[in-house]
User: What shape does this take?
Amino acid sequence: MAKRMILMLVVAIAVIAGLGFVKFRQVKAAIAMGASFAPPPTAVTTVVAKGETWPSTMNVIGTAAAIQGVTVSADLPGTVTKIDFESGKAVQAGDVLVELDTRQERAQLTAMEAQRDLAKINFGRTQELVKQGVIAKNEFDNVSAQQKATEAQVGEIQATIARKTIRAPFSGVLGIRQVNLGQYLAAGQSIVPLQALNPIYVNFGVPQQSAPTVGVGRKLLVTSDDFPGLQFGGRVTALDAVVNEATRNIQVQATVPNPQSKLHPGMFVQVAVVSGTSRPVIPLPATAINYAPYGNSVFVVTDIEGKDGKSFRGVRQQFVKLEGSRGDQVGVVSGIDPGDEIVSSGVFKLRNGAPVQINNKVMPGNNPKPHPEES
Assistant: This one.
């Protein structure tokens, strides 16, 4: 009995050892296969780096301001009898905006014009009598003064009537109407804002050490996040005479053509002031840059030798220094050379040494002056 149990125990140990050996071989083979496994290449697009020369610019934040901007108001009190404008519409200098009730003034004008006409007749008669020596000179002077007084009173009433016809003081775009038909307006009460939008001012500040490079006549480009891809060219027209003691900045004013009235007073804009000097850059699509807190980088396509000694098309991560942007492009000033093949899309899927498959059928935007449909 004991011999039989020992034999069975030996057989069981042998079976377990055999199974363990087989499993060990299987695990070892799986580990070897995993170590030799190569991930499939990642599909990317590429662009060949080319050197260009970009003008040096200083980028600052600015605010748009109207060259002329007022809130049209009532000069004299009165009741609104006619409104001749619509909110948000463009008007020309001299266009009638609002008419106030002038019935009383017109009645006074009629009566005063009658007195003026009578004074003219009396003046003419007195003038003839003076020539004939019938009346004294002082009586003629009184009649002459009366005639001039009535003329002045007629002119005063006519001026009052004209002041109750409120006109646009200059050409521009109206804001939102603030009065209604039949409303009584006090003197100085607001009627509607009026802004001249073409051209328009852009005000911004620059550090005092940069002021010598931002002289009158210096060219600049203005952009807004509200109009992607759209640029407004302008020139510096004035610099403030003092430096702000709190910020040590000097205020600069530029005049920018605004034919479509897209820029409005108070709008936040980006200003790129051209300094006049140029610098060599390698422009790349913005999608080619892998932005990171520790440094920006790109992936350069090159031949990489694998562990099996065979070479394949892969990528090498390269840190770069960026300076400036233009449309869809970002300027690279160091880190890569002209002729390098750079991954232009799909960088978020890559790692250093990863294999890639190039497919340039659909390329990302790489236009220095894009014109998107929504602009």
User: Anything to note?
Assistant: The chain has three helices and 19 strands.
